[in-house]
Hints:
single chain, 18 helices
Amino acid sequence: MAVTGNTLVLAAPPAPPAPARTPPRPQGPYRRLFALPGTRGFTAGNLLARLPMGMFGISAVMMIAGQRGSYALAGAVTATGLAATALVAPFTARLVDRHGQARIAVPATLVAVLGSLSLVVCVRTGAPAWTLFASYAATATTPNIGGMSRARWTHLLRDSPGAHHTAMSFEQAADELCYMLGPVLAAFLCSVVLPEAGTLTAAALLLTGMLLFTSCRATQPPVTAGPRRGSPLRSLGPLLPLFLATGVVFGSMEIASIAHLDALGLGAASGPVLALQAAGSCAAGLLYGTMRPRGLRTCLLAMAAAMTLPWLAASTGALLPLACALLLAGMTTAPTMVTAMSRVHALTPEGRLNEGMTLAVTAIFAGIALGAAASGSLVDHLGPSTAYALPAAAALVALAATKVVPVSGTRDVP
C-alpha cells in the first residue's frame, strides 16, 4: 500500500526476479556430426558392410584349411583374391564415381556375395581347386565402402573443414574397430559354429549393410556430368609410395608380433595383444577428431619414433612391455592415416574421389602383403625379435616419401 496525495493506492508486491537461464551445454564434435540429417542411417549401413572386410580372409582360410587340410591352398586362394581386388577395385570405384553409389555398389556387392556363396558350395562339395580360386576372385567386386562413406562426408561438409576432419577421424576409427572385431568374430564362428559360418555371416552382413547404406539417397554425392579431367593415378602418384610403406608397417608388425609371442610360448596371447594395438589406434583416431589436425610429416615422424618401441620391448622377452609398446605404436597410426587421407582428398581430381581413395587403399593392401611376406622371411632367417626392425624401417621410408608429396591440392576440399 502507498498514499499519494489524498488517495490510497494498493500496489502489488514486486515480482521476484526471473531465474537466470542456464546456457545450453555445447555439443561435442561427434554429436554435432551425427545431428546432420541422414548421417546416422548411412553410418549404420557403413559399419554393417565394413565389418565383413575383416572377416572374409580369415574365414576363407579356416574354412578351406579345415575342409581340404591344406593351409598352402587356403593361402594361395586368399592371395589370389587380394591380387584380383588390386586390379578390379579401382575400376569399380571409377564406375561408382561416374554413375553413382547406388547404381553400381548394389550389383557389385551381389556379384561379391555370389562369389562367397560359390566358395562355400565348392569347398563343401569337394569341387576342383580351380573353382575355389575363381569363386574367391569374384569377391574382388566388393565396393570400397569406407571410400564411399568418406565421399559422403566430404560432400556434406565441403564448407566445414573442422567437421570434415572430425568425420575423417571417425572413419579411421571405424576401420580400426572393424578390422579388430572382424577376425575375432570370424574365428569364433568358424571354430564354434561350423567352418562355413564365418563366410556366410560376412556375406549376409555385407549385403544388408550395403542395401541400408545405398538406401540413404539424400546424402549420396551427386554425379558430375560432362567430361572428367585429370587422372587420380597421376595426381596421387607421389603419395602412393607413402601408403605402400605404411601398409608394410601394418603387415610386418602383425607377423612379427605373432611369431615373437609364439616363440615365447605365448601364442594364445597373440589375438588380445594385436587387438590392443588396434584399440589404441581406434581410441587415438577418435581423440584426434577433437583436436586441430597436424601436418603429415609431423604424424609420420611420431609414427616412425613409436615403431621403434616394439623392437626395443621385444628384447626384454616379457609380455607387458611388448603390449604397452604395441599400444603406443598403434596410437600413432590413426592420426597418420587421417592426415594422409586428407591429402588424397586434396589431390584427387573433381568427381573422382572414390577412385582416388580406392587407389590409396589398394596401395595399403599391397604393402600389407609385402610386409607380411618380408617379415616372415626375417623371422625364419634372423628370428622374431629382429623382424620388428622392418616396421620401424618402413615407417622411416614413409617419412622420407613425404618430400615428394605436393603441399597443395588440385581442388579446394576441407
